[in-house]
Amino acid sequence: MATVAVDDVIADEETGTGGAREGIGGSRPFAWLLIITGAAGLLAAWVITLDKFKLLEDPSFTPGCSLNPVVSCGNIMKSEQASVFGFPNPMLGLVTYSMVIAIGVGLLAGARYQRWYWLGLNAGTLFGAGFCMWLMYQSLYNIGSLCLWCSLAWAATIVMFCYVTVHNVRHRLVKVPEGLRSGLLEFHWMPPVLWIGIIGMLILTRWWDFWTS
């Protein structure tokens, strides 16, 4: 009965009063998830941006999150990878995470968005997750330091991407085999948990001697 009810809601949102012309909205939990993950990413980007400005003013400045030789935000900020697009990476986060928060607030207010908008959000969060994974690799294996605020942004972006994808699959905006769709909707928590868990294991093994010393 529960499955039928969910399918009925989805059908109403796709073809009924909430059809393609009016767009597709999102549940309150999903809206809050966008707001919370967006706020977490925005907080991380804001703190890193402020510390970057202080570092530019005073090269001897030590960010508050530089705790030891491994957890050292300063080493990350001084690296070439910290300004891939010609400006500090967190400045990109200031814009994009703010947009995600705005979308979440809009959903709480009853906003409904067209298919192209949801697909655009999915593409944007995919880029964000991919960029975070590239930065994670650079941090662990090239720079050799870990930034706690960066880690917060990674986790927020991963959760954001996973649940935007689940939302789009649920509303059949992204077409996948029905068996995969059912499994993803039932075990929606598994991809972000496994993803973040793997990152945690990589961090643990990368500096195993340091953590255990």
From TrEMBL:
It comes from the Bacteria. It is a multi-pass membrane protein. GO terms for molecular function: oxidoreductase activity; quinone binding. One of its GO terms (cellular component) is membrane. SMART domains: VKc (SM00756). InterPro entries: VKOR, VKOR_Actinobacteria, VKOR_sf. It is found in: Membrane. Residues 27-168 form the Vitamin K epoxide reductase domain. Keywords: Disulfide bond, Membrane, Oxidoreductase, Quinone, Redox-active center, Transmembrane, Transmembrane helix. Belongs to the VKOR family. This is Vitamin K epoxide reductase domain-containing protein.
